[in-house]
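Figure-free illustration: sequence to structure, shown twice.
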Amino acid sequence: MTTELECLAGRLREFARVREWERFHTPKNLAMALAGEVGELVAEFQWLTAEESRDPDPETLARMRTELGDVTLYLVRLADVLGVDLLEAARAKLDDNERRYDAELYRGSARKAPPS
């Protein structure tokens, strides 16, 4: 992880430790909490038009920002508990997607690539 992500993971680790919450921060519980926060983020987009979603009003954007923060915190905490380097996992997934979705074959297409 990068230094900033490592610092954030460390702060989250300490946040849980001083509250004696480590026993609750199991991968299962963190994944479920992450899914809940993603749901709250999605709810902010639910009834917006495509255009409104690109340029939300300031109040909606503030709520989206809060939910994105929640999603990020749970994702970083989950990765830390599992010992996963989040940026390395993302890089590996992007490398895989670049192999699977050849730009010439998939340009302008929303079709899914066959399983690798």
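We now fold a second protein in the same way, so the two outputs can be compared directly.
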Amino acid sequence: MKKLLLSLTLVPAVLFASTAWADATDDLLDRLQALKSMKGEFEQVVLDQGGTHMQEATGRFQVARGNQFYWLTESPFEQMAASDGKTVWVYDKDLEQVVVRPLSQDLGQTPALLFGGKPADVAKAFSISERDNQGGEVTYRLTPKGQDPLFDQLDVTFKGGEPASMRLQDALGQQTVIDFKSLTVNGGIDSNLFHFEPPEGTDVIQQQQ
């Protein structure tokens, strides 16, 4: 009888958790559905397991529906990643080298697709929960469902209806924190940036998926 009573007391908790998960998923997908494109600047910090700063970077970016993105790191050194929805180019200016490969549709491997991909694919790729909601900010925790993801969990925070930051944590506890600045949402996008033509003399490395 005790086991039966214990099982019955767990039922409401399970139902509540399922409802909360569904609400968080629907809420995040609604936010992503309204996001057709965005561009701005970013500040990125990599922290070790103990919270010590390992690396800092700044730059600018733009993303648009159709799995298109442009990510330019300007400091401490220049490096660019771009995709037209089918192909990815990763260009290192100092090395005069560009790596060209097909775009992976796995959001666990390409977190930039969170904002540039199909919102419905986000629900397929991640378990979603609401981690925090206060002071006009709401944070969602995304846990990859797929095999061998680049990160164990991803927290994305919205403020005033716009993406404010992302925090990715890997299996070793290392975290990458990206803050978005000077955002323009659903405004003008330079679509030419989603395709890259290597400068003359650049070493082109072709990779297969």
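Summary for the second example: Helices lie at 2-33, 113-116, 119-125.
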